[in-house]
Amino acid sequence: MKALVNKNTCIGCGICVDICPEIFEIDPQGLSESMVAEISSYYLPDAMNAASACPTNAIKVL
Ligand code: SF4
């Protein structure tokens, strides 16, 4: 599975990075991005929590 961040709706609040820094980082433009091509099963719950916590629903875990 992978995490996709919609940079058109991300507001750069950093919540996803706080919840799951192993997957998300803030890019030079101040928006979130996924650092990994595939999410390991170990981090999948955290990635899904980050998606749920995103205030703009910018993260999709597929
Ligand atoms: S939680 Fe959502 S809005 Fe906030 S930085 Fe992450 S992707 Fe962007």
Q: Please, what is the oligomeric state? A: single chain
Please identify, by name, the CATH architecture. Answer: 2-Layer Sandwich
If you compute it from the alpha carbons, what radius of gyration comes out, rounded to the nearest whole angstrom?
A: 10 Å
Average of pLDDT: 98
Strand portion, in percent? 15-25%
Distance between the termini: 5 Å
Helix/sheet category? alpha+beta
Spatial strand sequence of the major β-sheet: 1-4
Number of strands: 4
Query: So what's the overall shape?
Result: globular
Task: Give a brief rundown of this model.
The protein is built from two helices and four strands, in the order E-H-E-E-H-E.
Characteristics:
62 residues, alpha+beta, Alpha-Beta Plaits, two-stranded antiparallel sheet, two-stranded antiparallel ribbon, 2 helices, 4 strands, 24% helix, globular, binds iron/sulfur cluster
Description:
With 62 residues, this protein is of the alpha+beta class. The chain has one domain: Alpha-Beta Plaits, CATH 3.30.70.20. Helices cover 24% and strands 19% of the residues. The protein contains two helices and four strands, in the order E-H-E-E-H-E. Strands 1-4 form a two-stranded antiparallel sheet. Strand 2 and strand 3 form a beta hairpin. The longest helix has 10 residues. The chain is globular, with a radius of gyration of 10 Å. The chain starts with a strand and ends with a strand. The model has no long low-confidence stretch (mean pLDDT 98). The structure holds iron/sulfur cluster. Iron/sulfur cluster (SF4) binds next to helix 1.
